[in-house]
Design brief:
Blueprint lengths: L24 H14 L4 E6 L5 E3 L2 E2 L6 H6 L8 E6 L4 E7 L4 H7 L4 H8 L4 E4 L3 H11 L2 E3 L6 H16 L10 E3 L2 H9 L3 H23 L7 H14 L3 E2 L4 E4 L20 E6 L1 E3 L2 E2 L2 E6 L6 H19 L9 H17 L7 H4 L5 H4 L32 E4 L2 E4 L15 E4 L2 E4 L6 E2 L8 H7 L5
Parallel strand pairs: 1-7, 5-6, 7-8
Antiparallel strand pairs: 1-4, 2-3, 4-5, 9-12, 10-11, 11-14, 12-13, 15-18, 16-17, 18-19
Bound molecules: manganese (II) ion.
């Protein structure tokens, strides 16, 4: 338990509850079963875990498993391959894992090994990854199609390629290997698009921690603070609560706030400037994604407030469009209309009407990205936005971010930035669950009203 004390309203006393248990093995088994209803008979699905990545010489980046591996098996260590085989009458899963190895484990930590994988993971069979060639060959020979994403393991790619080649050389022999290499992503994306209650409990927890992290950064803000100092408050809060970032934190002060994926975070934020922070953590693989923008000295200038109010109104209108049956781009339409009208009223856009103001040549100069994306195991989660080229309609259980922004980069040479707003970048982002009632803002604990922000900023600086 962790709570904030300080001169704030009740609303800002944010308590982080117990971390939810990981998604149960029973649910992972249900996902495997559901997958089998999409997988043709005699098809083999291979999920290869992400390779480790070298940072420098013998130092690797912290490991993050492949989201499909997490989704189907919950295995989060490298050098693993999951095989799901649909035999028609029955189906089975097999997991290849690194075997126990005392010398290697002395250096890098204990491994579950084959026995551990079989006992403690939701699979029918487990085997050593050293036996991949011998073990996979019979499965490949028995299947008619193989669902596999290439490029993660040369070993697996080679096995699949030779099985496909063998089959194409000998078309007369029936059932002697896969005739087709298929892409598993479409069916996995469809499944992952709708979140279960236990997935939502992971996401709610990630959203609570991320909200608190932003509050800590607001409280630690003051003129002259370094971007990396605010980053340390954000990421320290993630770690303190047992999570880690879901994507590299963006902390941009002043003109840096107008760089959409700014990650240098090495500037200082001058007294009088806004800071934009886009940062979220992940819990058991599930991401939160929050952006807030505030004046580091605790008081919006008139010009900053004019832009902030437009973006906030656009965001509220966009959230209100997150309803069952609406097309996924309804929030984008609502946000764009609100911002175009707001900028027309300020005289930033010349119009002369709303339709003209919405064009790439007008609003598009200052708002150049979409208003949201699916959120889940990946921060830009899987899910086709326009199946059959028609916009997908919202359904209960989808989670989407809502993140309009306006960016008046003083650095831009291609266009004349309105002088009053030069160096102002504002984005406000929340994570929204589609329900059969009102939109459920999972990040509602993170303040965004002007009065709330001004009351919080600098209270711990
Ligand atoms: Mn986002």
């Amino acid at each position: 338990m962790f709570s904030l004390a300080g001169p704030m309203s009740e609303k800002h006393v944010l308590t982080i509850g117990e971390a939810p248990p990981p998604v149960s093995h029973a649910e992972l088994r249900e996902r495997q079963q559901a997958l089998m209803t999409h997988l043709p008979t005699d098809a083999l699905l291979l999920i290869v875990n992400n390779p480790e990545a070298i940072r420098s010489r013998d130092v690797e980046y912290p490991y993050r498993a492949n989201s499909d591996m997490l989704y189907l098996v919950g295995w989060d260590e490298p050098n693993a391959v999951a095989c799901l085989y649909n035999g028609g009458e029955c189906w089975k899963t097999r997991l290849y894992v690194p075997p126990r190895d005392v010398l290697a484990e002395t250096w890098t930590g204990l491994r579950p090994g084959v026995d551990g994988a079989l006992a403690d993971w939701p699979v029918d069979e487990a085997a050593s990854v050293d036996e991949l060639e011998d073990g996979l060959k019979p499965l490949l020979d028995a299947c008619r199609s193989v669902y596999h994403i290439r490029g993660l393991s040369d070993r697996v790619d080679t096995l699949v390629d030779s099985a496909l080649l063998e089959q194409s050389r000998d078309r007369q022999r029936k059932g002697s290997g896969p005739a087709d290499l298929c892409d598993p992503r479409p069916m996995l994306s469809e499944m992952r698009l709708i979140k279960s209650e236990s997935e939502l409990s992971q996401m709610r927890h990630a959203c609570q921690i991320s909200s608190l992290a932003h509050i800590e950064a607001m409280r630690g803000s003051t003129g002259g603070v370094a971007e990396y100092q605010l980053q340390s408050l954000i990421e320290g809060c993630f770690l303190w609560h047992g999570s880690r970032w879901a994507y590299p934190s963006i902390v941009g002060g002043g003109d840096n706030a107008t760089i959409l994926h700014y990650q240098d975070n090495d500037g200082t934020v001058a007294d009088g400037d806004l800071v934009l922070i886009d940062a979220g953590c992940e819990v058991n693989g599930y991401a939160a994604d929050i952006t807030r923008t505030w004046p580091v000295n605790g008081k919006f200038s008139d010009a900053q407030r004019e832009i902030y109010d437009i973006v906030l109104n656009a965001q509220l209108a966009a959230i209100d469009a997150c309803r069952v049956g609406n097309p996924y781009d309804a929030p984008h339409t609502a946000a764009r209309q609100t911002m175009a009208q707001g900028l027309l009223d300020l005289g930033v856009l010349e119009g002369p009407n709303l339709e003209e103001a919405l064009s790439v040549e007008q609003l598009g100069l200052w708002y150049m990205h979409n208003t949201g994306h699916w959120l889940g195991l990946d921060v830009h989660d899987v899910g086709v936005y326009r199946p059959d080229d028609e916009p997908r309609e919202f359904e209960v259980g989808m989670v989407i971010t809502v993140e309009p922004g306006l960016y008046f980069g003083a650095w831009r040479g291609d266009v004349e930035c309105p002088e009053r707003y030069a160096g102002i970048g504002v984005r406000i982002e929340d994570d929204v669950l589609i329900t059969d009632g009102e939109p459920d803002v999972l990040t509602a604990a993170c303040p965004k009203e002007v009065a709330e922000l001004e009351a919080l900023i600098g209270t711990n600086a």
